[in-house]
Specification:
Elements: E1 7-11, H1 16-27, E2 31-36, H2 39-51, E3 55-60, H3 66-79, E4 85-88, H4 103-131, E5 135-140, H5 153-173, E6 178-185, H6 198-206, H7 216-226, E7 238-241
Parallel strand pairs: 1-2, 1-4, 2-3, 4-5, 5-6, 6-7
Helix pairs in contact: 1-7, 3-4, 4-5
The protein binds nicotinamide-adenine-dinucleotide.
Length: 256
Amino acid sequence: MANMPRSVVVTGAADGIGRGIAMHFAHLGDRVALLDYDADRLARTVSELTAEGGQVLGIPTDVRSETAVDAAVAQATQTHAGLDVAVNNAAVYPNTAVVDMSVDEWDNVLDTNLKGAFLFLRAAARGMLAQGRGGKLCAITSGAYRSARRGAAHYCASKAGLVLLAQTLALELAEHGINVNVVSPGFIEVGLRPGVSVPYRERIKHDIPLGHFGEPADIATAVAFLCSDEAKFVTGSVMTVDGGSGAGRFHLPYSD
Ligand SMILES: NC(=O)c1ccc[n+]([C@@H]2O[C@H](COP(=O)([O-])OP(=O)(O)OC[C@H]3O[C@@H](n4cnc5c(N)ncnc54)[C@H](O)[C@@H]3O)[C@@H](O)[C@H]2O)c1
C-alpha cells in the first residue's frame, strides 16, 4: 500500500543539501514547504520542483528570527493540512581562526545554526504537539560536531550544540510519539562555496575512504529513512553519512 502523503518542512531548502532533501520528499509525493532567506534562489528551486510535479511551497524565512520562523511553520501547517516532518538544515560555515574572529561573525553562526535550529524545532514541535498525531524531527549536523576543524570554532560549537539540542528534544517528545534524529554528513558535493579552495577540496577528497564526495541525495535518503515509519524505534540517534571519513585515520603511515 502506498504511504499517505505527508506535510514536510525543510529549512535552508533553496540550495545544496536542503534542496536535495526537499526534492526527495517531493518525489515521494509529500507536500513540501521550503524555507530559506535567499528569496530569489528559493523561487527558482520551487519552480523547478513544481515543474517536476512536486506539491511545494516556498516561504522566504530568516531562521534567525523568532517571528519569521513561527509564521513560516504556521503557514506551512495551514497550507499543507498539518505538519508531519520538519528538517532543520539551514546553516552557514564561514572560516576564520578564533584569534581573528569578530563577535559579529561568532554571533551570526550561532544565531543561524543553533538558535535558528532551536526556533525552528520548537515551532515544529509545538505544532505537532497541538495536532496530537506524533511526528518526525530531523536536524543536519556535521562531522564538525565531534571533531575540531581549524577556522571553524563557531561552526563546531554550533553543530555540537545542535546534536545535544536534538537529543534533549528526543527525550522530551518521546512520550508524544515524536521522533527526533540527526544526520551527520561528510563532504557533500554542493558546488564551490566561499572559503573552500580547489586545492583544499582535492585534499579532502583524497581523505575520504570511499574516494569521492557524497551527493545531496545521499543525505536526503538518510533523512527520509529516519523520518519514516520503518524507523519508528529510532530516536535521539545520530546517523553518519560520510563515505567513512569519520571512522578513523584512513591512510597508512607509509603510503602517499
Ligand atoms: N556540504 C557539505 O559538505 C556539508 C558537510 C557537513 C554538513 N553540512 C551541513 O548540511 C547543511 C546544508 O549545507 P549545504 O552545504 O547544503 O549549504 P548551502 O550553503 O548550500 O545551503 C544552505 C542553505 O541555507 C540557507 N540559509 C543560510 N542562512 C539562512 C538563514 N539565516 N535563514 C534561512 N536560510 C538560510 C542558504 O540560503 C542556503 O540555501 C548545513 O547544516 C551544513 O552545516 C554540509
